[in-house]
Each structure stands twice: as structure tokens, then as C-alpha cells.
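Data deposition worksheet. Section B asks for the primary sequence of the deposited chain exactly as it was used as input, without tags or linkers unless they were present during the calculation. Section C holds the resulting structure in C-alpha cell form. Section D is free text for depositor observations; keep each observation to a single sentence. Incomplete worksheets are returned to the depositor.
Section A, Depositor: J.P.
Section B:
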Amino acid sequence: MKKVNLSLLLLSIVSIIVALSLGSVKIPLREVFSSLNPSTISLYRRGNLSGPEFIVLGIRLPRVLLAYLVGFSLALSGTATQALFKNPLADPYILGISGGASIGAALALVYAPRYTEVAAFLGAILAVYTVYSISKVNGHIPVDILLLAGIAVGFFSNAVTSYILYMNKDKVHQGLLWLFGTFALATWKKVGVMSGVTMIGAIFLFLSWRELNLLLLGEESIALGLDINLYRKMIIFAVSIMTGVAVAESGIIGFVGLVSPHVMRLIVGPNHKRLLPTAAMFGGILMVLSDLISRTVAAPVEIPIGIVTALFGAPFFAYLLMRKKRGELYA
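Section C:
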């Protein structure tokens, strides 16, 4: 287990360094490392930096760090959501949580940009409550109804978000960038907000690994002393705030929360003590590399990152559905 954690940590650092080096302007690795020394950082903070070092510190580093944090949060949220709903096909995007957050963020983007993160969080909470209420049948949540409810809320949310942006055409360009997912608007302020939310959410979920294991047992966990309703609410709150802020800072990016837990479950098993940190790091790496592809494969044109993640996520989702049909996944 330590080898897996160490390998993912090293891969995280390597992916970040590579992403700092590559782009429309290729920067040699020695200049990347020289940009990260204290004296260069001090020059940047005083506004006396230019050239490749400014590109690294002022443009690429906040973008790459934001991508890693968003991938980390979405993968963590996906892992917790799958345990919460006892459904391996659940993730914040498919269950409509990202869509709900997008409505709040779009409204705030148009009318109150200072409150984008708060509005996205409220939208996420409303969406998960709606999906949960629609799906619940006599105290149980059938898998097929859950997925259909999530898809319905997601489609509805996307329609409302598109309408809001369409009716405010002066913000269409920025809105479209955000709607398809982008890290082009990354700033150090966004990195700070995302860091705080990710740290709080990660600490809570890492400490809740026993409860997440018990939630997979369903009603049997009550007999083992777990207040199942309380933990469901706490986990929904944590997932909603992480997803909401991630959507507010980067737009709608799907499938990372679905793919990461499954890949790491194959390697480290279903125990959430091991699964949560490894899936989160894998999600961060996946997002950094996806962003690298989005800004280099058709340079100087940038492909929205939501398109890149959908290209690998949608086939993976179809593969999971086929395994689910054969009964190879837990229900």
C-alpha cells in the first residue's frame, strides 16, 4: 500500500512538472526548476518578473495546481458518492450534482460574481436533494431510478444554465468557456479557495473511511451502531461543497469522479482507508494530464477540458454498464 501511495505521489509531482514545461511555448525543465526558487518567487510577488519564469509562475503554475485540486476533489467526491448510494455508477456529474452547481454558478456569474462559490454549493445541495427525493422508494434507492433521476436533473440543469448564459450574451464567451470546462481562467485566488475547500473536505472524508465502509452494508450498518442518516447528510454536505466549488472555479467537468475510484479499486481494493487517498491522487493526475492534452493537441486552439474527459469517460461508463449488466459490480 505504501508503494502505491508513494508511486502516485511521485506521479503527481512528475505530471505537474511536465505540465509546467509543455504548452504553446516549451520551457526547458532547468528553467522550470529555476522559476520555483525563492528569489524568483520573490521577484514575481514584487511584479518584477518576465519571460519564461513569468509564464511558469504567473500562468502555468496556478493553472496546473487548480487542475490537480479540482481532479482531486471530484475523484474524492465520486468515491464517497459511490459508497453513499451503494452504486458503482454514481458520480457528481451523472447524478446531476455538477449540473445543479452549474445553475448556481451561472446565476452568480451574471448577477453576483463575488458569490459564485456559495451559489454553486447551494445549487449542488438542491440537486442532490432532488435526485435523492425522486429516487427514494419505500426507504430504498433503486439503481435504475437513481441514474434516471440524476440524468433528468442533469439535462434540466444544463438547459437552465444554457438559457441563463444565452439571455446574457455579453457574457457568452466567458460563459461558454466555463460551460465546457476550462482552467484558462485560473488565478492564484481560485487556487487559494480550492485549496481550502479541498483540504477540509479531504480531512473529513479521510477520517470517515470506516463509516463509508459501513454504508456499503446498507441497513445492516445500523445494527453495528452507525447513525446512517446523520452520516449520509454529512457526506452529502461535504461532496456538495467540494463539487460546487470545483464547478464554480473550472466549469462542468464530468467522468473524473467515475473513472478514478474504479481504476484504484482494481489496484488497492474496496477498503476506503486505501481507496480514498489513492483515487483522489489519481484524479488529480488525470486532470493535469487532460488539461495538458486540451491545450497542446490542437495548439494554439484550446480544446475545452470537458470534451477531453468525456472522450475517455463516456466509453468507460459504457464498459461499467456492461459489467453491471453481467452482475460483476456491487449493487
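Section D:
The CA atoms of residues 34 and 40 lie 7 Å apart.
The radius of gyration is 20 Å.
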